[in-house]
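[stage:ingest] chain + small molecule (zinc ion)
[stage:ingest] validated
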Amino acid sequence: MSTDLDERERRELRHKVNAATLDALRALGGEARRSDIHQRALADGGFTPRQLTAPPPASAGDKFARLIDHQLAWALTNLKRDGLVENPCRSVWRLAGAAREAPSPACEESVFVDRLDELRRMPYRDYLRTPEWRVTRAATLERAGHSCSLDVTHTDALEVHHRTYERRGRELASDLVVLCHACHLVHHKQFGRPGRRPDKRGDVATARPAASAQPASRSFFKRLFSPSRSHTLPD
Ligand SMILES: [Zn+2]
Ligand SMILES: [Zn+2]
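[stage:predict] done
[stage:export] tokens:
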């Protein structure tokens, strides 16, 4: 039995497939053939029966048996566009950019603790240049579907905002929010910012102002952010 996924479910699946593809490539040593990556992602991606059996879009029905096959086929292309994988020769794919620079999960716990300590002590703007932050940032954008958390139609000049710095270096997904530049500015106007000014270099990735986006309304902000918790200084 297969049933169609709704828009939100399809989007969720797309992000899960992208994440599973990166994880698969990591598990395979950072470079692998497309078919091996797909197989691994399918096996280890934690997909639900509903996700595994959803039918493909009508336009792709002659090429793919299931929606997940269609999305897997696109995942590497999407990740390549985001600079996280590259395709050095036909059918071979490997981790690139921020994804490649992430520390190996197999590294010694003591090394991890030292590095975490370092990440927490370094100046914030240096932290924003670390491979660790770049991977976290890319994953956050990916999870948010490359759109502003306050309005999905805001897709330009996206920035990743820290709701708290408590877990700097090992942030939880809930510590971070994707905002477009315009909404981010309004947020900081409303709720202030920490003593230093992260947005000067800071959690801002692309400083282009969104040309057409209107910042989301005040009530949206209230719902998403609690002023007392946002921008807690790390020290
Ligand atoms: Zn911010
Ligand atoms: Zn926005």
